[in-house]
Amino acid sequence: MKQRYAGASGAVLVGLLCGFLVFGVHGDKVEVIELGNWTITNQNGSLTIDNQTLPSGIYSAFAPQVLDSYNDVGLRYLAYDNWTYSTLFQFGHLLRSAKEAHMNMLRVWGGGVYESDYFYQLADSLGLLIWQDMMFACAMYPVGDNFLSTVREEVRQNGIRLSHHPSVAIFVTNNENEAALVQNWYGTHYEKDRFESEYRELYLANVIHELKLVSQRSRPQPLVSSPSNGKASEQDNYISSNPQDNHNGDVHFYDYTKDGWDPGIYPRPRFASEYGFQSFPGAYAWQRSKDGDDDVLALIRHRQHHPLGNVPVIALVERHLPLPLPEDENYVNALIYFSQITQAMATKVETELYRSLRDTPHKTMGALYWQLNDVWVAPSWSGIDFYGNWKMLHYWAREFLAPIAIVALYERSTDSLNISLVCDLLEVDTQELNVVANVHLWSQLLPRQSTTWEVTLRPNGVQYDKVIPLSDLLKGQFTKTNAFLEFHLRRGHEVISRTHFFPCSIAGAVGIEDPGLEYEIVSKTCLNTTDVIRNSVSISIQVKRPAVFVYLELLKPYRYTLSENGFMQTAPMHVVYLTFDAPSCFRLLLRKTDIRVLTVNDFMR
Predict the structure, then answer these.
(1) How confident is the model at residue 36, as a pLDDT?
(2) What residue spans of 72-191 are helical by DSSP H?
């Protein structure tokens, strides 16, 4: 169970909305609302924010600056599952970012809002499927006649509005309310029969009834709750003793007491519709959002709304990475950077496990992690920050969600690696495929030993290639503490996919030293577009020893993307490509100091 709060985000899907305004149009009347430094105007149904016209179909969200200005007045920012709140002007960027990371489904979380027509039109055009929760989540609801009348009208209107969209794959009446009822989250057991009766009246007699009126043969029948046992819930009249049964339906999974980098801690469900780990936005995002001399660590703590505070984040970091002491000068930068590494790795491991279980008896057929985007600059589960910049997680997702991917998961009981080759393509060329297992020393560049074997791919399936005892790869001079493993799936010499395995905690690894990292901006080009100038920059990075999880951050107030981030550099030279849109060309203005580069090596004791 994950707690949600005003200002918190959640979901791998889309969550949009904060406090919103409802405008009424009367003839040619013009309505003007002053909100802080912003002027919102409605003239005959056409909305503008400081003279910026809102896209057609969007009538209920504020521009990001409005939201950022009112974090302290109790506006409730709501989210969807696997991505949360989206501003008007971020829709295109967020959905295209999801597409670029090979996501094929987004979940609109039941604690958020019904998204605008524009959102669903974008999803249609991009080929993204939508798991659509109705707006009931994490609560018990009344069943008075007046309330049920509004519920039926709400569901009817939105069902009719959304049902024709090819992107909408399934409707679900609520988020976590069956689980909350059964597991007594809100102290309902004292009147168990009453609350169960009201649950069935609300969702079965009203919400499901209205959704079935707009159902189509091409779409599965609506689910009553998530998580639930799906069709198997019928025998329990839709309140099952264990709504998270791994054999049926879907599960939500969070466990912050265990090591998120260990695949052994995760369930083997039919569908994982919500899971994730927190991280902190990049250091520059905090600088942009803080007021004057605000202490960044104090601000992080203030905006952390999880009941356990930052303890789960710090605990996972300390399991694997060399976090400095809180009194050390570099503590905050290390904590922010390390939080993104641990989030990315834990989500990678969990997602890869679910992908690898597809053709096993578990038949895991989907995974949606919480969450895609963010509603403010704060600790959250998001992979994209409030300003639209990708965290390390989203860069990694582009790799671990790729249509063809190599997976190497550790099996603790046998001290071995399970190598699986995932292929989502219906047709694939299986010629000249091979896997290369590279053994690296933490102290030296380039692989010290390599093993190659021929493989094949299973179209639209998983090829379970082999189980390799670690002792077969780590022997002689190679140990669990002085070496790590890299696996390439190749066609000939072309690398299709790669992954790494670290046999010990990186904080305890032997041989990690100052990589002698130097970087230079080697080229800058500008391209004029309709609204902005697209700046493209090539950054050359040179190292003398392995650089661990190289992380780049642009220290300018622009949304940017990198060709990769959080990568292992084990070759002397590597080039990373940076792209950002700005009002002007930075060919002469961008300096080396405008780019921050971090490595785990920087913090090794």
Answers:
(1) 39
(2) 91-100, 117-126, 145-162, 177-182
| Predicted TM-score of the model (pTM) | 0.87
The span from the CA of 574 to the CA of 151, in Å, is 57
What are the tokens at 463?
């090829």
User: Tens of pLDDT along 320-347?
Assistant: 999 999 999 999 999 999 999 999 999 9
Measured between alpha carbons, how far is residue 13 from residues 90, 220, 294, 299, 571 in Å? Answer: 14, 19, 32, 27, 37
> Could you tell me whether strands 433-441 and 573-582 are parallel, antiparallel, or unpaired per DSSP bridges?
unpaired
Helices (H), 307-358: 311-320, 331-356
> Which regions of 66-162 does DSSP assign to beta strands (E)?
79-80, 83-84, 105-108, 129-133
Cβ contact 170:222 at 8 Å: yes
Higher pLDDT, 554 or 77: 554
How far is C-alpha 36 from the chain's CA centre? 32
CB contact set of 298 (below 8 Å; sequence gap of 6+): none
Amino acid present at 574: H
Residues 229, 242: Cα–Cα separation, whole Å: 8
DSSP letters of 557-599?
Answer: SS-EEES--SEEE-SSEEEEEEEEEESS--TTT--GGGEEEE-
Give the N- to C-terminal CA distance of the chain in Å, as an integer. Answer: 37
Q: How far is CA 326 from the centre of its chain?
A: 28
Which position has the higher pLDDT, 501 or 64? 501
Q: Kindly state the DSSP code that residue 522 receives in the 8-state scheme.
A: E
Of 176, 210, 350, 553, the active-site residue reads 176
The answer to whether residue 176 is catalytic is yes
> Of residues 274, 350, 486, 553, which has the active-site annotation?
274
Strand 129-133, strand 168-172: pairing: parallel
pLDDT digits (tens, 9 = 90+) for 536-560: 999 999 999 999 999 999 999 999 9
Structure confidence by residue, pLDDT tens digits, 293-323: 999 999 999 999 999 999 999 999 999 999 9
Residue 207, strand partner residues: none
Question: Is 274 an annotated catalytic residue?
Answer: yes
Rounded Cα gap, residues 158 and 174, in angstroms? 14
Residue corresponding to tokens 């990049």: 282
- For residue 90, name the pLDDT band (cuts at 50, 70, 90): confident
